[in-house]
Predict the 3D structure of the following.
Amino acid sequence: MSTNLEVLEAQALMLAPSDRSRLLARIIASLDPNPEIEAAWEQEADRREALLDSADISLVSGAEAIDRLRSRFAG
């Protein structure tokens, strides 16, 4: 790994988690600038937001979601 990349990585890791998440999303988006894919993700985000707003679904914590998946896939 180059020295510049190591410095950049160290700086990125010092960011707050929300800022790192936003940075990650922007970096990933830069890797695949396909407008059709971006539009599809935007539609999916809108669909999920509408579901949340309509109360047709309920939110669960990350820990609960993982527990549910573990029990679902545990033999």
Summary: The two ends are 42 Å apart (CA to CA). Residues 3-73 form one domain.
